[in-house]
Specification:
11 helices
Length: about 260
């Protein structure tokens, strides 16, 4: 994630809003890919660890050296819910040794879902189309977003275990970075939680109101920004075209009444 100080430096250097959004979006995608790769490595490491636990056996040599029992070397995770009766095995009766695999059947390793790639011929499913409809995407915008989604992952060589989930995450990122408009229900829910101060800071610098989906411009009818927050930026905000004109005071005459009669 790009540090806020870097974004401020870019804005001070004259970077446009589109450039800032593109930089943040690229950083978000790189971070997500790193997280996905890390999870895949962790899953592979756990699979190998479970496989090594299932290969534990007891040999007559172990019995002679340590006097172990049938259940001593069985890892806690691999023991059955109702452990068998423990029976001490000594060197005098090695025939009593029963293979651990027959006594406590190991649990089946959970098979991870296969990861697949996406190709240029991949078409959206009905679930993908339904997800796009929930975000209010029309047919043209839906085709554009799907093409961008597909080309991005083809260029990166991405592999996913759940492509519908990756598509929904793409839509969420589009809303987060302003490429896709939020659904009306989400907009209403987010108004109460909006941090207006950073928005007003950018408004003071750009002199252009770009957050109409959250609230009308400060000073205009229907503005959702609390008045006490707007007051903090008095004198810095651009003058609103909806601001009431200053009251015109009557001109005071400085001529003495006697001189006016003359």
């Amino acid at each position: 994630m790009i540090d806020a100080s870097v974004l401020r430096a870019l804005a001070a250097a004259g970077a446009t809003t589109e450039m800032l959004i593109a930089a943040v979006e690229a950083a978000q995608i790189i971070e997500q890919e790193k997280l996905t790769e890390k999870r895949a490595k962790d899953a592979e490491r756990q699979r190998k660890h479970r496989a090594s636990l299932q290969s534990v056996t007891v040999t007559p040599r172990d019995i002679e050296r340590h006097g172990v029992t049938e259940c001593d070397d069985v890892p806690q995770k691999e023991k059955s819910p109702t452990p068998p009766i423990r029976k001490t095995i000594t060197p005098n009766n090695p025939s009593d040794c029963v293979p651990l695999a027959a006594e406590t059947a190991p649990r089946k390793a959970r098979r991870a879902k296969a990861r697949t790639s996406i190709s240029e011929n991949t078409q959206p499913s009905d679930a993908d189309k339904l997800a796009a409809e929930k975000y209010g995407l029309g047919k043209e915008n839906f085709r554009t977003e799907w093409r961008m989604f597909r080309n991005h992952h083809i260029s990166k060589g991405s592999t996913m275990a759940d492509w519908p989930a990756a598509w929904r995450q793409w839509l969420d990122h589009g809303v987060q970075f302003g490429r896709i408009a939020k659904p009306a229900a989400q907009i209403e829910a987010s108004k109460a939680d909006t941090d207006w101060r950073p928005i007003l800071e950018m408004f003071c610098k750009s002199q252009t109101w770009q957050w109409g989906r959250l609230s009308p411009e400060p000073g205009s009818p229907g503005c959702k920004i609390p008045a006490e927050i707007i007051a903090e930026y008095a004198g810095r905000l651009p003058e609103s075209p909806f601001a009431a004109p200053a009251a015109t005071l009557p001109r005071l005459s400085l001529v003495h009444p006697s001189e006016r009669a003359a």
